Amino acid sequence: MTSPSIPNNTRRVRSAGRGARTIAVLVLGVLIDTCAVVNVPGAAVLPADASGEISVTGFGTALVLLALAGWMSMIWRERHPLVMLIAGGVLALIGVSYLLVLFGAVASARRHPSRLRLIGIITSAVVFIFVLREVLTSWGAALPWFLTRDSEGQYEPAWIVASCVIALTAVAMTAAVVFASRARARVVRSDVRADYEQRRADALAEQTVRQAERERIARDMHDALAHRLSVVSLHAGALEGAAGGAAGELARTVREQTHAALQDMRGLIGDLRSAPGESAPSTMRAIGPLLSELRAGAVPITAYVVIEAPERASAQLDSAVHRIVQEALTNAIKHASTAPIDVFVQVDPQTGVRIRIVNSLRNGIDAIVPGGQHGILGMRERVSALDGIAWIGSHEGTFIVDVTLPWQERGETSLSSTGDPR
User: Membrane-crossing residues (predicted)?
Assistant: First the structure.
C-alpha cells in the first residue's frame, strides 16, 4: 500500500519546525540545569544575605559542561532516545535536575512502546530518589534560593512539600504526554488501516467488474464465432470426402486448422471466464508444433528456433513469446500466404529473447484475410508489458517483426505490469 506523497516544500517546513523546537528545548533545558547546579553541594557558594551573588566553583563549572553535554543528546532523541534517557538519569542522580530524564522517557516510550512499563518504572525511580535526597539531605537549594534568596529555606516543610508536588506533577504530565502520543499513534494506524481496507475494497470491486466484462466478452465470442467455425469445419470435412488428390488434402488441412481454431477459441473463452491467475497461458514449447502445422498446410517456412531453459521463464514471458510468434505468422499468412517466411527465435536466460520473422509482401494484391491491425497492437502491448523493444513494419518489400525481450525468471514480475506497489 502506498502512502500519500508529501510535497518537498511541506517536508522542508516540517523539518525546519522540528529543528527549531529541538533548539528551543535544548537552550531552555541548559539554562534551567545551569541554574539547578546550585542544588549540588560544593557546586556553588551561596551568599549569606539576599543582596549577594552566587559564585560557581570549578566543580560547578564541570557540572554545567556535563549538563550541556547531556542536553546535546536531544539531537538523537528520535533514533537513539535511550541515550537521552541515560544522560538524564546521570544528571538526576548527580543532583542537577530530573528534567532531561522526563524528556528522555517521552522519546523512549515513542520509540520503544513495548518497553513502556520498564521506562515508566525507571523514570519514576529516578525522580523518587531525587526528591528523597532533597528531603533528607542538603541537596535542593536552587529553588528556595532563586525564589526567596533564603539559603536555609530548603529545610522548611513548605519547600519539602513543594518539591514533592512539583515532582508528582512533572511525572503525571510526562505520563499524560506519553499516553496522548500513543492514542494519536493508534488513530494514525487506524486511519492507515481504514485507507488500506478502502483501497482493497475498491480493487476487489474493480476486479469484479472486470471479471463480469470478461464473461460478457466470452459469451459474445462463443455466440458469434463458435457456430461459424463449426460450420466451416463441417463443410471442409464434406469437401474432403467428396474431393480427392491435392484438393482433398487441402480440404483436410482446412478442416484440421478450423478444428484447432475452434479449440483455441474455446480455450480463450475458458481463460476469460477464469479469475485472473487461474487460466493456463500458452507456452513457447508450442512453437515447434505450430510451425509443423503450418508446414503441413504447405506454408513455406524456414525456421531457426533455439529455446533454452523454458521452465525457468516466467509465465508472462513464456506466454508472450508464443503469442508474438503466433501472431506474426498469422499476419504473414494473411498478407502473403504463398510467400516464404523466415523465422528466427532464440531464447536464452543469459541474453534474453530475440524474435525475428520476415515475409515478402504481395505487391498490389489485397490480403486474403482482411486485418484490423489489432494483432500488431497486441504484439506491441505484450512487448511493452515486459519492458522489451519491438520494430514492426515493412521494409524494402518485406514485412518484419523484430522483437527483443529481457529475460524474466519465474516468480519475478515486470515493473511495467505491476504499477505502483500497494
Answer: 20-42, 54-76, 82-106, 118-146, 158-180
Instruction: Specify if 188 maps to a domain.
Output: no
Summarize pLDDT for 300-325 with one digit per residue, the tens: 899 999 999 999 999 889 989 998 99
Per the structure, the complete domain to which residue 319 belongs is given by 283-422
87 is written with which cell numbers? Answer: 544522560
- We report the CATH number of the domain holding residue 331 as 3.30.565.10
Against a cut of 0.90, is the pTM above it?
A: no
Helix (H) or strand (E) run with residue 399 in it: strand 398-405
Q: Are 403 and 355 in contact (CB under 8 A)?
A: yes
For residue 155, pLDDT over 80 is answered with: no
pLDDT at 184 over 50: yes
Please report where in the chains the cell 504447405 appears, as a residue.
298
Domain count, the chain: 2
Tell whether 57 is covered by a domain.
yes
pLDDT of 272? 67
d(CA 411, CA 339): 40
Any residues with CB less than 8 A from the CB of 417 and at least 6 apart, and which?
Answer: 316, 385, 386
| Residue 92 resides in a domain | yes
